Amino acid sequence: MIIDCHGHYTTAPKALSQFRAWQMDRLKNPDRLQPDPGVAVSDDEIRDTLENNQIRIQRERGVDLTLFSPRAGGMAHHVGDAKTSEAWTRHCNDLIHRAVMLYPDNLAGVCQLPQSPGVSPANCIPELVRCVEELGFVGCNINPDPTDGYWTDPPLTHRHWYPLFKKMVELDVPAMVHTSCSCNPNFHFTGAHYLNGDTTAFMQFIESDLFRDFPTLKFIIPHGGGAVPYHWGRYRGLAQNMGRPPLETLMNNVFFDTCVYHQPGIELLLRVVPPDNILFASEIIGAVKGVDPQTGFNYDDTKRYINAVQWLEPEVREKVLGGNALRVYSRLRSRLEAQGRLPASGESS
Amino acid sequence: MIIDCHGHYTTAPKALSQFRAWQMDRLKNPDRLQPDPGVAVSDDEIRDTLENNQIRIQRERGVDLTLFSPRAGGMAHHVGDAKTSEAWTRHCNDLIHRAVMLYPDNLAGVCQLPQSPGVSPANCIPELVRCVEELGFVGCNINPDPTDGYWTDPPLTHRHWYPLFKKMVELDVPAMVHTSCSCNPNFHFTGAHYLNGDTTAFMQFIESDLFRDFPTLKFIIPHGGGAVPYHWGRYRGLAQNMGRPPLETLMNNVFFDTCVYHQPGIELLLRVVPPDNILFASEIIGAVKGVDPQTGFNYDDTKRYINAVQWLEPEVREKVLGGNALRVYSRLRSRLEAQGRLPASGESS
User: Fold this and answer.
1) Among residues 153-172 of chain A, which lie with CB inside 8 Å of chain B?
2) pTM surpassing 0.90?
3) B117 touches chain A (CB under 8 A)
4) What total number of domains does chain B contain?
5) Tell me, what's the pLDDT at B346?
6) How far off is chain B from A292, nearest CA to CA, in Å?
7) Residue A221 near residue A256 (C-beta atoms within 8 A)
8) Cα-to-chain-centroid distance, residue B311
9) Tell me: the pLDDT tens digits for B320-333?
10) Is the residue at A33 inside a domain?
11) Residue A20's domain is classified under what CATH number?
């Protein structure tokens, strides 16, 4: 089973952005009392936005299942306050749930969280519980910088985050560490802020004892891990210099996706990161749209790069393309078992 | 000729840090009037700090020349104000000059600049001119984030920087884009802030028309270009999506060093970045000290990785190890010609 662990609803119906526009307007003009428009969307609209986009591409590329979350750049946790973030997050996650209900074989839900700068991530627990227990979601996205470009909240390894991590462990859901938009003119969002967030998170993990405190907490670092695999020697050396345990000790907890959009990058990733720690992903209709004139295929057709790696053992390819996702997202396995798409627990995919 | 374009005086005599401590103390306790201790260092002290360190390693590894600048983490432009930065920078650069005078065959000077958050980089011009014209330096380091971790100054491509760039062009000196320490607990300095700075700068260049305004301005992005070569496909795709010119159009202006501390990373760099745009560097006694137990050699012995790339054409290896540095640092060529170490201008190295 081929599982893409990184997809966003980048094509969501207009009503969602109209709600957001209403929210922003209310923040700017608190006296102008426009009624809350909600997010009124028909099933057909959802089908339209997916059939012609994510679901079509999924079928064309032979992907069985996508872990589907709200648009990352849209999370924009810096906007308004915790209440703003909460209302927005609820709508975004509800729409993911509806998409998943319409395409239960193609999609599984991953939620955004109502983070807000300076606010304890404990405030995200009710929404996480709702998404996982009521809506059947299998993971969440955590924004390591809710300020969206100024990084003034504490590192992911600070106790500030512990209440949320405790609940993640309890629910047995992993988080993808994914920044959102950038308000900082220094950082282009998909060209700098995303990759910087990935790189930053990994180094925070090296520096801390987070996984001693939470031995079963799991993070996926997207976009191939930012700069990390390319600088694997640097990180091994830094850990060694700092008297930290070797990188291998992070490998029960930290995973990398394959959103790297050229052949040499994918090969490096597969060469340096342990095979159990790489999860297939493409982030389609995402950061990098369009066809690479050098190959004639879409930049984001990462399955093609993986399949082109001649020296990859078949069992490693299978792990990367799906087996690892089933291990890391343990609720996904239960979900597939309940759907009768996987044999009952304990057996291999 | 083998030229390492990225070395810092990380082993500078204690008197330098004592001066800095005095400066910091004066900032904290402006009423306590300790006399300015200056930086009193003998030639022998300088020899001691280098003979046992950078010069020894240079000889052991068969490197002919290192472009030598003050410690990057020590620039700490956020400390105090522009006057603080100016006094500190002058001492740091003077010490580089003395080291170069003692080892004129082994070292060539690259200066730090008296940047300060919120202050126009025009204030760096006198020190740049002094270092280049009076002290014979061949390049400078520019900190893209003088706040040291909060990124509240304008991007490198903003007109804010233009007076400095104009002078760089006039003097014909390139700049290495190098962040300094990090005051932000989110960013480990060598494990996140350095690489993020590299990645960020490259994306700024993609987004802007800086090199239309300054066609001969040259930047070296250190640490193998941060995340950039690993994500070369992403950047090609982003440029294409954004209607920006292809990456090749940046290649007269943007160069990458080889401070990547493992074999697969160096191979990726050599595979994706055009051969004229890669400059040998190792940053010895720098971010990553120590021996890699997997190879038995120092992590930062990057010449070894380059030499181990079997498929690299000899003429490309020669460019990477020295020829490109001579082209990018044009004042270095003149300097070597004046020393009689290179035939007079126009001829190949």
Assistant:
1) 153-155, 158
2) yes
3) no
4) 1
5) 56
6) 7
7) yes
8) 28
9) 999 999 999 999 99
10) no
11) 3.20.20.140
Report yes or no: B151 at the A interface, CB cutoff 8 Å.
yes
d(CA B177, CA B193): 12
Q: Which residues contact A238 (CB under 8 A, 6 or more apart)?
A: A203, A206, A244, B188, B190, B191, B287, B288
Alpha helices in chain A, H assignment, sequence order: 14-28, 43-51, 54-61, 72-75, 82-102, 125-129, 162-171, 194-207, 210-213, 232-241, 263-272, 302-307, 314-318, 324-328, 330-338
Strand partners, A279: A257
Neighbours of B30 (CB within 10 A): 8
The confidence band for B349, taking pLDDT boundaries of 50, 70 and 90, is very low
Please tell me the distance from the alpha carbon of residue B248 to that of residue B239, in angstroms, as a whole number: 11
Edge-first strand order for the sheet with B3-9 is: B3-9, B65-70, B107-111, B139-142, B175-177, B219-221, B254-257, B278-279
Computed over every residue of chain A, the mean pLDDT equals 97
Q: How big is chain A, counted in residues?
A: 349
Q: Which long-range contacts (CB under 8 A, 24 or more apart) does A38-44 make?
A: A38/A91, A39/A15, A39/A91, A39/A94, A39/A95, A40/A15, A41/A13, A41/A15, A41/A16, A41/A95, A41/A98, A43/A98, A43/A102
How would residue B236 be classed by pLDDT, with cut points 50, 70 and 90? Answer: very high
Asked if B298 and B291 touch (Cβ cutoff 8 Å), the reply is yes
Whether A147 and A75 have beta carbons less than 8 Å apart is answered as no
Pairing between β-strand B291-292 and β-strand B297-298 as defined by DSSP bridges = antiparallel
Q: Which is the catalytic residue, given A86, A127, A267, A283? A: A283
Q: Name the E strands within B185-253.
A: 219-221
Whether B267 sits among the annotated catalytic residues: the reply is no
Any idea what DSSP says for residue B181? -
Q: Please indicate, yes or no, if residue A148 is contained in any of the structural domains.
A: yes
Residue B35 is assigned to a structural domain of this protein: no
Of B151, B199, B231, the CB nearest to A265: B231
CA-based nearest residue to A13, from A37, A51, A39, A35: A39
- What is the nearest CA distance from B102 to chain A, expressed in angstroms? 31
Q: Tokens in use for B262?
A: 């493992």
Contact A155 B185 (CB under 8 A): yes
Is the pLDDT assigned to residue B45 strictly greater than 50?
Answer: yes
Q: What are the tens digits of pLDDT across the range A229-270?
A: 999 999 999 999 999 999 999 999 999 999 999 999 999 999
Question: Are A67 and A3 in contact, with CB atoms under 8 Å apart?
Answer: yes
Q: Do B237 and A292 touch (CB under 8 A)?
A: yes
- Asked if residue A22 lies in contact with residue A15, where contact means CB atoms within 8 angstroms, the answer is no
**Residue A310 located in a structural domain:** yes
Mean pLDDT of A152-179: 98
Return the C-alpha torsion angle A190, A194, A195, A196, nearest 10.
Answer: 130
CA distance B201 to B203: 5
Q: Based on the number of CB atoms within 10 Å of its own CB, is B105 exposed (0-12), middle (13-18) or buried (19 or more)? A: exposed
- Is some CB atom of chain A closer than 8 A to the CB atom of B205? no
Q: How far apart are CA B171 and CA B187, in angstroms?
A: 34
For residue B300, what are the domain limits?
3-27+40-338
Q: Give how far the C-alpha of residue A304 lies from the chain's centroid of Cα atoms, to the nearest Å.
A: 21
